[in-house]
Amino acid sequence: MLFAQGGASGAIGGVVQDASGAVIANAKVSVKNEATGEAVRQATTDSSGLFVATLLPVGTLLRGSNRSRFSRDHFPGVVVVITETTRMTAVLKVNTVKQVVEVQSQVEQVNTTDATTGQSLGAQTIADLPLATRNFQQLLTLSAGASADLNGAAQLGRGQVYMHVNGGREDNNNYLIDGITVADYAFGELTYTPLPSPDAIQEFKVSTSLYDATQGRNGGGNINATLKSGSSKFHGDLWEYFRNTVLDANDYFLGQVVQKQNIFGGDIGGPIGPAAKLGYFYFNIQGTRQRSGDSPGTYINTSIPVLPTARDATTLLNTFFNCANCPGPKAAAIDPVALNLLNVPGTLFGPGAGGGFLFPSVPGTPGFTTIGGIPQLNYGPLLLTDPGRFNDNQFTANWDREFRNGKDRLSERFFWSNSDTYEPFGADSFGIQTGGQPGVNNLNFPLDIPLHSRFGSITETHVFSNTLINEFRFGVNIISDKLNNEAPITGAQIGINLPTAVGVKRAGGRS
């Protein structure tokens, strides 16, 4: 009998046989963690020679089997995959002389225990595959049935991943870290979810269909990620990933744009105290400093009407309404709000750029050109880039310890991250789109997006017997993001009065 695996655990199951293929009943099976050498589970085969060890930590385990008259055999390199049951066949040899034999186990490469479809990727695969912004979520679409938009390598920030599973919406997926849901239920996507460094990820899996009730809560994909733990030996890494403008090719439209990126950090893990009496720890820290002028919100590539050098009411009327080839009826006056907006000074496009106006001047002839007897408004190109910035600081701190000879296991996970994204030409109308009230300022650029992520969990696994195991998890996930519009002017400054806007006095004095 095989038990369902939930959250961040896996299982090993199989059969113990002798050399002739006959099953061996009452054989003792010991499962050890290869990284720490500690026994994590004990089991005994039943009358059919079958065994199962459930709720095992993800990673590479060592499995040993023995029975009277048979040698004590070791089966190293048995991989426990998240949410899956690894099936294997253990063949024991007759014990003619006291000996310990190490053999290669016969592990099934295809999951035959359930019909779940999905792909599991381990730490080595994550480290080997290229990630432009060090976002492991960009690898989620390697699973069958999962797809996503192509992520721009020059995109500011950690890179957005809009994953669709079997044609579903991107907000139909569920995201877990070590068995705790960390989905963003306010936004419904992966945009602001906790994102540890890929070096801190032990394994992740995307279950795309036919998974059971122990997996996730949504009808789309179910993303399970597990964080690394320490081992019996100290191990650490340092890294620096960088990009620089002088090493990048020119953009076809914008020419050479600023593209600088530095991702640096390190990690260390190992035992705590003599013989790891206080458990095992793992610590990861990473910082990101990015500047990009080739990302949405950092450049403008469009055409706008050509305006006259003088922007007084008379000149504007004669250019666009009362000229010889102007279409439509003549006009006696111009809207005061439009006049004020066209004359607002601004340097958002760079010192002296755009004629020094918020609504810039572009090359060309103001007014209309008659083509085929039809007046056409003259447009000019507005092409510019202003590098935005993305800064991120994060760390991951994990701790594991076993008690009572493996009968109890306590695990702690903590992730902390503060990031900030600044887009010179970014704009936000999210509040209005979701039914919120418009603000007094709807001229929406530049845009600043601070994001604070906190994730913590505690897991306790208790073995009552070989057939009864309980796992308790408690976790907290905090996502705090803001969309700060740093607009250059307010609507009131150009004569716009929105009675329903936040901050505007209404009848009775309420705002």
How would you describe this structure in keywords?
511 residues; mainly beta; eight-stranded antiparallel sheet; five-stranded mixed sheet; 4 helices; 28 strands; elongated; disordered N terminus
Give a description of the structure.
Strands 17, 18, 19, 24, 25, 26, 27 and 28 form an 8-stranded antiparallel sheet that branches. This protein has a 5-stranded mixed sheet with strand order 3-2-5-6-8, with no helix packed on it. By secondary structure, the protein is mainly β. Helix content is 5%, strand content 42%. It is elongated and about 105 Å long. Mean pLDDT is 80; it is low at 1-5, 97-104, 431-442 and 504-511. The longest helix is centred in the middle third of the chain and has 8 residues, at 313-320.
Distance between the termini: 65 Å
Strand content: 35-45%
The count of helical stretches stands at 4
Shape: elongated
Number of strands: 28
* Low-confidence spans: 1-5, 97-104, 431-442, 504-511
SSE-based structural type: mainly beta
Q: What number is the mean pLDDT?
A: 80
The share of residues in helices is under 10%
Question: How many strands, what sense, and barrel or not for the largest sheet?
Answer: 8 strands, antiparallel
CA radius of gyration is 31 Å
